[in-house]
Design a protein that fits this description.
This protein has about 375 residues and is of the alpha/beta class. The chain is built from 12 helices and 14 strands. It has helices at about 1-25, 40-60, 80-90, 105-120, 145-160, 175-185, 205-215, 230-240, 255-260, 290-300, 310-325, 330-340; strands at about 30-35, 70-75, 100, 120-125, 140, 165-170, 190-200, 220-225, 245-250, 270, 345, 350, 365-370, 375-380.
């Protein structure tokens, strides 16, 4: 009897120890590289906020396979050098299993060699097509490719029987990638680029470029950049009385652009993810449920509307969650499971990754929106 009691006690103690070990399982460390401050903070701040919100909610519901997530965020300030330093710190010191970000194409391109060498999955929140084209083994992205955005704009111009366009692109990674796509796709869509000019990320007046465009014979203007430059261009165009249709890139797909451009934003058309017009979508839209939930969740946490950019971080975290659930928190397992993701309806679109496609989205990830009365409306 004593031996049996001793056995039972030992068994119970062993279970308690095992349970305690399970409860004490270390968290899964996820790195975040976001431009929380600096010129690109309109991207990085909602991305950081969203990442923190999603991690908190995952942890509150029990974590992933009983393990909590630990999010370690560094502010890149939109500076490629700082992004590389932070990436090295996340990998070497913090021992993260994966990295989300950076916020910008330039920062991402700088960080890619670091992630590839360390064999750590990187899910960028930036839009440049060259981030995943050609495919890099350890690099994925959630922001819609700028090549898809260009096609959306050109198709709309073609429907309006507009063939001569002026392009005005910012001289940074995002602008350069957009400019490449605008030029590469022009002929296929029957477009003639009659003016091709650039502006600097810190320029505060683009009157000279717009005056040149006015005499170019262009029928429409396509501006490719992120705030604040495009808002300056919108205001300059209005001041000059330029009557040409003005198109922007998805780089300004948030209410922040409308705030910066004011009345000059009226009538501007741009491609965007569906989140900024979620309430206008038909109930049959596969993303609508996730979009509405995200917008309300962000509003509850931060008293602001969830936007296109925060959505990139939401998608990245949820894609990581799915990969870890299907595999493990080992970086190689995460990478392999990300590549096997199929038909994930997120904020930016419906993602299907493959060995040949680490961008995961098709052209239908974008809708065209027009700014009317300081709000976004769907272009039919």
């Amino acid at each position: 009897m004593l031996k049996r009691a001793t056995f039972i006690l030992t068994f119970v103690v062993s279970l308690a120890i095992l349970a305690g070990s399970a409860l004490a399982a270390p968290p899964v460390k996820i790195g975040g590289l976001f431009a929380v401050t600096g010129p690109a903070s309109f991207l990085g701040e909602p991305e950081r906020n969203t990442a923190q919100m999603v991690v908190s909610e995952i942890n509150a519901s029990g974590g992933i396979k009983g393990r909590k997530l630990e999010l370690i965020v560094y502010d890149t300030q939109g500076d490629a050098t700082k992004a590389v330093q932070a990436a090295n710190r996340l990998i070497k010191d913090d021992k993260v299993s994966a990295i989300i970000g950076p916020s910008t194409t330039g920062d991402t391109m700088a960080v890619i060699p670091v992630a590839e060498k360390a064999q750590i999955p990187l899910i960028s929140c930036a839009a440049g097509s060259k981030i995943t084209d050609p495919v890099k083994k350890w690099v994925f992205k959630t922001a819609q490719n700028d090549g898809l955005a260009v096609a959306k704009i050109y198709e709309n111009l073609k429907r309006k029987k507009i063939a001569k366009v002026a392009i005005l692109t910012v001289s940074d990674g995002f602008g350069s990638s957009g400019r490449e796509q605008l030029k590469a796709q022009a002929a296929a869509h029957g477009m003639q680029i009659v003016s091709d000019d650039t502006y600097g990320p810190k320029d505060t007046d683009m009157t000279a470029q717009l005056t040149k465009i006015r005499g170019s014979g262009a029928q429409a203007v396509i501006c490719w950049g992120t705030n604040p430059g495009p808002a300056v261009i919108a205001r300059n165009a209005k001041q000059l009385g330029l009557k040409l249709p003005l198109y922007m890139s998805h780089g300004v797909s948030s209410k922040k652009f409308i705030e910066l451009a004011g009345d000059a934003s009226e009538g501007i058309v741009l491609p965007s993810g569906r989140v900024i017009v979620a309430d206008l979508l038909p109930n049959s839209d596969r993303q609508k449920k996730s979009l509405i939930a995200f917008v309300k969740d962000y509003q509850k946490h931060y008293n602001a509307e969830g936007d296109h950019f925060g959505g990139h971080a939401w998608d990245a975290l949820m894609l990581l969650k799915g990969a870890i659930e299907r595999g493990s928190d080992n970086p190689a397992a995460i990478r392999n499971q990300l590549e096997r993701t199929r038909n994930f309806a997120g904020i930016g679109g419906v993602f299907t990754y493959s060995p040949n496609d680490h961008a995961g989205l098709a052209k239908d990830a974008f809708v065209l929106v027009e700014i009317r009365k300081r709000d976004f409306a769907l272009v039919k």
